Amino acid sequence: MPELTLERAEPGRYVLGGLGTLRSGRRSTEIEAGGTAWKLRRGFGKTIKASDTVSGAREARYVPGGRLRMRGIYLGTIELGDRELDWRADHYMGEHFTVRESGYVLAKFDAGTDARPVGVALFGLEHLEALPLLFCCHIVKCVVDMTMEAGSPGAPVEPR
Prior knowledge:
This protein is mainly beta. It is built from 1 helix and 12 strands.
């Protein structure tokens, strides 16, 4: 199973292997892969929208789920056109996440440190394209950022 790590290249800019980059800003985040760039912005109800930076067309959307919608990143759906990916923390307030499509595990994500905020393990013959993969990395990085802001005791677990 292929494994990737999102690594900090410079402050605010992260690289996921040779696949693409994630650039964090105050109000938005931009991801880029294969010459295409998408801007991620939080919308109403903690949704996160990914729009093509050239055309402005919405390409993907994360919709939080669950009864309490705790911080909006532990349970939800990633919509990619006709596709729906199921996003879940492995346990409440977790650092390990799984993305599935039609019940099949596509990838597992582990929260890490600021220098290496996300570890990714890809499963099976199915794969995630650059947009959903980097989109998921952004969601996990939000968890890492919240943990660092809260100053939770103990060092975060280093990704695999």
